[in-house]
Amino acid sequence: MPLPVPLPDDFSPRLIRGDAFGQLLSTCWAAGGAPGAAVDAAERDDGFLFQLDASLYFQKPDEWCPTDRWACERAVGDVLDVGCGAGRHALVLQEAGHRVLGVDPSPGAVSVARQRGVDVKQLAVPLPAHRLGVFDTVAMLGGNLALLGSDETAKQVLESLTSVTHEGSRIVGTGMDPHLADMGTDGAAYLEDNRRGGRLPGQFQMRVRHGAAASEWFEYLMASEQELVGVLRGTPWRLSEISPYEESRYGVVLVRS
């Protein structure tokens, strides 16, 4: 995983609501996906900033974290890539012979992914009730298991994924255990406050910032293996396989009954 990078000089505290993630990817793509072209700044609702070089979203498989490679290799058949971003996973899956449809709520991300050769629709999870097709695999890579959001919204997200899959379909994804991750100076207190409030410890409100643009706040969930199993309870999805941990990161295969 890339190390955090400093915020650029033009990073603005005066924010305008907009497609910050799409602007971030467009800036980096215009520079050929080169390191240093743009900074991904994800802001937690207590003000803590997670910062990564945006070239992460354009990496080749040999640059991915091992858990992403592990999960991607377990895709079968037709694939729905949820939160496809710039399409780094979708492109590799296509090259491996899979039919892939990407979905992402960011119009800028959709534009970049299309320019790179990905079939993509501008949609967020939970997916709306219209037909996308039936898929053998749902990919939630690059840490996108966090798009389950919370214990409550996860049920809605998983129900919507059930509607575009069949019995025996799988979710291949990667997540992060908040109890093992670097959550910042006040991270332990944040996790404990969540626990006392009846929430999962790694349940966050997040938004993406780029320059003066900020996305809408959204739910983001980091969960341990045990917490993930709890989230799946009462849904048609069960944990079938989990990768070795890479520090706080792990990959999973969830199978639909």
UniProtKB/TrEMBL annotation:
<dbReference type="InterPro" id="IPR029063">
    <property type="entry name" value="SAM-dependent_MTases_sf"/>
</dbReference>
<feature type="domain" description="Methyltransferase">
    <location>
        <begin position="79"/>
        <end position="166"/>
    </location>
</feature>
<dbReference type="InterPro" id="IPR041698">
    <property type="entry name" value="Methyltransf_25"/>
</dbReference>
<dbReference type="GO" id="GO:0008168">
    <property type="term" value="F:methyltransferase activity"/>
</dbReference>
<dbReference type="Pfam" id="PF13649">
    <property type="entry name" value="Methyltransf_25"/>
</dbReference>
<protein>
    <submittedName>
        <fullName>Putative Mucin-5AC</fullName>
    </submittedName>
</protein>
